[in-house]
Amino acid sequence: MKRQAAERPRGRPSNLKSGELQERLLDVAEQQFAEQGYAATSIRQLAGQADVNPALVHYYFGTKKDLLIAVMDRALLPLAGAIAEMKSAGSVSVENFASLLFNMAARHPFMPRLITREVMLSAGETHDLFAKKYAPRIGGALPGLLAREQELGRVDAGFDTGTAALMLLSLCFSPFIARSLAEPELGISYTPEGLDQYLSQIKKLISNGMTS
Prior knowledge:
By secondary structure, the chain is mainly α. The chain is about 70% helix and about 0% strand.
């Protein structure tokens, strides 16, 4: 009888540097939290998807909650920082703000779905974390920025700034939430070229309907 080959023990893949492995784990976690939900996703499942030992996930990120925070920090803190820079500059192009939102979603296409599932449709721990740490610095900053642009005559004064902020967020994030239907049924292309075209359509809509 032939002896079966022993299963290769999982550890740290030899062809990946530490930073690359952490990015891989964050990519897997972002997708799994978005598709399955945070509560339904275990560290063991994430490790299996990344082909590493669960202990390695704990080594790099600590608890599952710590991993969730790392996933959200990676996508949202650079966005919040860029918005803060725009705020300190004294003026904000609405088209540039839309570009920031859309490009973040294009780089992290599962993040809008994660936010929808775990924040907008939930009243749990993730909702509270997002509301305290990220929302005031991203979407929460937008009404004030739009109001300032209205005072400078660059945004139509007829817009309610809260409504306009929600419209911008929806325009930029909804394509990634609705991809499973938008791609086959509406013919939306999610190639880099297709996403560039979609963003140009958002800017055209803003230019023709929102800015003065």
